[in-house]
Amino acid sequence: MEYILLILGFVFLVKGADLFVEGSSNLAKFLKVPTLIIGLTIVAFGTSAPEAAVSITAALNGNNAISIGNVIGSNICNLLLVLGVSALYNPLKATKKVVERDYLFSIFASCILLVMVAEEFLMGEKFSLLSRSEGIILLSLLGVYLYSLLIDAFSQKKKLEIEKRKFTFRDLISIIIGIVGILIGGNLVVNSSVQIAEAYHISEELIALTIVAIGTSLPELVTSAVAAKKGETDIAIGNVIGSNIFNIFLILGASATILPLTIEVSALIDIIVMTSAQILVYLLMLKKMRIGYKKGIFMLLLYFGYMVYIIGR
After folding, report:
1. No. of H helices and E strands in the chain?
2. pTM greater than the 0.85 cutoff
3. 263: β partners
4. How confident is the model at residue 277 (pLDDT cuts 50, 70, 90)?
5. 161 C-beta neighbours (distance < 10 Å), count
């Protein structure tokens, strides 16, 4: 039964992502807002919903390994797997503003989390704690980022000539059905994958970093791949950057605010890997403001190498 639900989850994800990208692109044109802004906000938030559901539920249940591992694993997956696969469909072209503002803010998010977690380990503690106050700081930083996006969106509406388009009831239905499909698909894939993994007695941490992380990143993977295939590379890139920012600031921020998260030293290593991956992709993107086929293959190889490392660990 779990295998049937897994396949059904993939169907919901693929169709939901297709409808969501189409509706979101039309909404951006109707509002005369650049598709990048839509990708960084609406699409990113929608595709981060499975991570939010899993991590916050895990935090409430005291499953800290799943709560933390899911976010870290998803961010690494977004960076290397999602962007890597998307680049195979179409070269991902990034604007200077995306690289210098949004992507650097994503790196900043990783660095803030690294500092918060590493502090207690450097003092000789065996565990680190992501406290309520640190959770509130993360949520506040998300507010600052969203405010800067809104200001930018209003300024661009006046400066840019953006194609006008009517926003129909069908477009609204596409977005709603797309989001519902993504959420249902994500939940089906994650729940069935966890049940299959538990049958083989795999640890919580390994499940979180692999099956749960990949499962909750499937909306980002399918949405970005579909967007890249349609030539909407702004949505493909913005979705990943925005999702990674949401994952750290919103999901971990909300989880820690609800209940402080205890973090083991192995999670610190994964946060270092995540931050390193952020910087590496930044350097790959910086030279020509694009991620092409060869870079995509390289990123995929790095991700599979990381999978081999954590399974061996």
Report:
1. 15, 4
2. no
3. 128
4. very high
5. 6
